[in-house]
Amino acid sequence: MSKREKPTILVVNDDGIDAPGIKVLLEAVQELGRVVVVAPDSPQSATGHAITIARPLRLNQVHIYPGVEMYKVSGTPVDCVKLAVNKVFKGKKPDLCVSGINHGLNHSINVIYSGTMSAAVEGAIEGIPSIGFSYDDFSYDADFSGCVPYIKKIAAEVLEKTLPQGTLLNVNFPKTDALKGIKICRQANAKWAEEFDERQDPHSNPYYWLTGVFQLNDKGEDTDVWALNNGFVSVVPVQYDLTAHHAIPLLNTWNLDV
Amino acid sequence: MSKREKPTILVVNDDGIDAPGIKVLLEAVQELGRVVVVAPDSPQSATGHAITIARPLRLNQVHIYPGVEMYKVSGTPVDCVKLAVNKVFKGKKPDLCVSGINHGLNHSINVIYSGTMSAAVEGAIEGIPSIGFSYDDFSYDADFSGCVPYIKKIAAEVLEKTLPQGTLLNVNFPKTDALKGIKICRQANAKWAEEFDERQDPHSNPYYWLTGVFQLNDKGEDTDVWALNNGFVSVVPVQYDLTAHHAIPLLNTWNLDV
After folding, report:
1. Among all residues of chain A, which has the CA nearest to that of B124?
2. Is the CB of B53 inside 8 Å of chain A's CB atoms?
3. Which of the four pLDDT bands, split at 50, 70 and 90, describes residue B257?
4. CA A41, CA A59: separation in Å to the nearest integer?
5. How confident is the model at residue B4 (pLDDT cuts 50, 70, 90)?
């Protein structure tokens, strides 16, 4: 970006264009550049890195907040990023992509299920400096105000400095009145032990609601879960190269010839 | 698993329970253990790691191939793995999870969009040794026969040996009559330059079909794309810890205090 031009900032989320979290996020970054919002027209939580290929997409400009350029998309968060780059920015990539603020945390293994984080991952794949933001409160009336100074600071720093090639940031905020600052972390080793709530429909056929119990398998004090449990904002650098490079030498000792 | 018991093998895919690829896969691994198929009741390509939380799921036993225990699920490939572990295997995890054979390749960046690979990733998160298989032919009548000896060999090796903690395998087959063997690879650095086919509906409103052009940004001869282009079966070890560990020291030099 030329030093003289105002940076362009793509704002996306997975809770939908009318979610309170995205309003807080777009207002937090408005002083840093020209904001364009491209977000799903319906809730898209837990859609991961899904894209829409079996049906066409709608992209429509909407006027929700005065003076803010906004578009709603009938697809997933990743669809939003792709449509933003191609149809809204017309190939001239934005200088920053911010996603969120998610209503609910996206620490540890949740990154892989999260539409919020997948949008930021797609931004990074596009070569755009990208950050996902999530807050530990699922409620519609969540008070995001404590997140705002950190969002401004982190976004400004990412705009000014350079994230390593192929990486983005996953930022989570604990619900506390007294944030202790920021910790750079790794993703905690954790999983969801799924449970299904089995019910019967009026025709006596079973159906299942996915639920689950969070299992933390990590006692490290360098993880996002530890940071959040101790009142810190967690910042995890994330990568989208999924190669387990460390496993290649071992596999080369296996005999897989037929 | 006890040496005396027959291994249990979960077979899943993203093309749907009636896809030819899953039939080839389940038949290929049948001699290795007791096969249970849990697969989507409709095509779920490119659904990534999406899970279904906003509506309930159906799980119903079906009888498609004689003697094969099969269930169809009204959800995503990852939902299938979760329902299989919890409701079909009732918490006693299978000894192996195989996903595919996908109609179409899942090399390089495609891992992150692929329902086939996301099912295998979910298997690995569950602690199940897991492998995704994909073949370079999208057609319904694809001839998967060349894949079969490799599938048997790789699945047997994974059952016998131990994949490193937190990893799984991504196996892709090129379309050739003369496979040259297996290459252990890293995921090639590539992306999709999205394009949208813009059309007008009968009411003169625009809609968009997602398409794209594959961009390979990697000249390495140690990548899956190189292997496939040169007639080899590519085997990439994949991990689901998305932390960019190498970026942590740099981020610790940034001033993110507010």
Report:
1. A191
2. yes
3. confident
4. 9
5. low
* Nearest chain B Cα distance for residue A6, angstroms: 22
Q: How far apart are the first and last CA of chain A?
A: 53
Provide the pLDDT for residue B137.
96
**Reported pTM:** 0.96
Q: What is the interface pTM, i.e. ipTM, of the complex?
A: 0.95
Beta-carbon contacts of B20 under 8 Å, excluding residues fewer than 6 positions away, are B103, B140, B141, B142, B144
pLDDT of amino acid A64 = 97
Q: In this predicted model, what pLDDT tens digit does every residue of A3-30 receive, in sequence order?
A: 568 999 999 999 999 999 999 999 999 9
What pLDDT score was predicted for residue B38?
A: 98
Split at pLDDT 50, 70, 90, the class of B3 is low
Q: Which residue in A82, A186, A244 is closest to B210 by CB distance?
A: A82
Taking CA A244 as the corner, what is the angle to CA A240 and CA A247, rounded to the nearest 5 degrees? Answer: 175
Domain B8-188+220-252, CATH class in plain words:
alpha beta
How much is the pLDDT for A169? 98
| Inter-chain Cβ pairs, chain A and chain B, closer than 8 A | 236
Task: Look at A256 and B157 and tell me if their CB atoms are within 8 Å.
Answer: yes
Q: Are B103 and B73 in contact (CB under 8 A)?
A: no
Contact A127, A166 (CB under 8 A): no
Q: Of chain B residues 90-119, which have a CB less than 8 A from chain A?
A: 109, 111-113, 118
| CATH class of the domain whose range is A8-187+220-251 | alpha beta
Nearest beta carbon to residue B243 from set A49, A182, A238: A238
pLDDT, position B58: 98
Cis before A17 (ω within 30): no
**How many C-beta atoms lie closer than 10 Å to residue A249's C-beta?**
9
Contact criterion met (CB < 8 Å) for B196 and A54: no
Confidence check: pLDDT of B1 > 80? no
Q: Domain spans of chain A?
A: 8-187+220-251
CB contacts of B50 in chain A (<8 Å) are: 46-50, 76, 113
Q: Is the dihedral of CA A49, A55, A61, A64 positive or negative?
A: negative
Q: Which residues of B touch A256 (CB under 8 A)?
A: 150, 153-154, 157, 182, 235
Whole-number average pLDDT of chain A: 96
Q: Which of B208, B226, B257 to mutate to test the interface with A (most CBs of A within 10 A)?
A: B208
Cα of A96 to nearest chain B Cα, Å: 17
